[in-house]
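User: Okay, second chain of the day. Same drill as before: sequence in, structure tokens out.
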Amino acid sequence: MKIFSDREFRNEPGKIRKELEKHEVVMTSRGKPYAVLLPVDDPSNVEEVLELAARIRAQMALSSVRQKASKKGLDNMPSSEIDDEIKAVRKQRQR
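Assistant: Same drill. Structure tokens below.
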């Protein structure tokens, strides 16, 4: 993994492209990471890489929800309460 700033990307795109041939690149703006660039060896694999990236984002979202639930003490909620909550939300949506 290599880290590059927006400025480096703008001024030396070829350098980043060469690094991508070897490994992933993390993009930063003002020192804060905001994106990960992945190398694509075979252009026909682009859709597969994008699908895997979507799965990763979904997994990260699920992990975040679980962490928030744990902090609120909701991770030990009984199934019956969860089912009641789901029913209540569905009932509201029908109105």
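The chain has a mean pLDDT of 92.

User: Thanks, on to the next one.
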